[in-house]
Amino acid sequence: MTPTFPVSIDATRPRRVRRPLAVGLLAAVWSLALPSAASASLLSHEAEDKLATFLALFVLFVVPVVLITLFWLVHIMPEKIAHKRHHPQFEAIRTLCLLSLAFGGLLWPLAWLWAYTKPIGYKMAYGTDKHPDYFTEQEEKSAVESGAATLGLRDRSTVDLRDRLAHLEEKGVPAAELKALRADLAALEARVADADNEAR
Hints:
Elements: H1 13-33, H2 45-84, H3 90-102, H4 108-115, H5 120-126, H6 132-150, H7 153-171, H8 175-199
Helix pairs in contact: 2-3, 2-4, 3-4, 7-8
């Protein structure tokens, strides 16, 4: 005896649902079988060729120059740091930076650490932890300051005004304004001379 299964009312529905599904599948297959002109890019073929040529030239010529420049700037950074900090072994750090360039950057971390160190042994041997250029700069700076201090305040103001007037003449300021400034400067110099005479 064969078992009987209950027949559902929905047994006829799958046929109705299958027709729109079959029509949709046929439409999809038809659209895939007969494609219209497809393009993988938004640009035309000529524009793609020009863009590819530009990118190739950029990558071949500009990128290496930029990378070499960055490599060089990074490798002279310890030298700049040592110079700014007046490191007494500045020349040795500069030499290590140049060697680092030759060895592909392997010595750069040593130069960078060395630029930030305080040379204790150098101070014990030479009595200072600054480069000799530091003391030369300080002497020049103090000489300029002492020279400015020997000039009186009034003399410095008139010298500054003369310099500013010469600078304005070079820029091409109108003659009427220059004449008025010269008159003011002459009056100021006369007042300074009178004040110096009264002080004596």
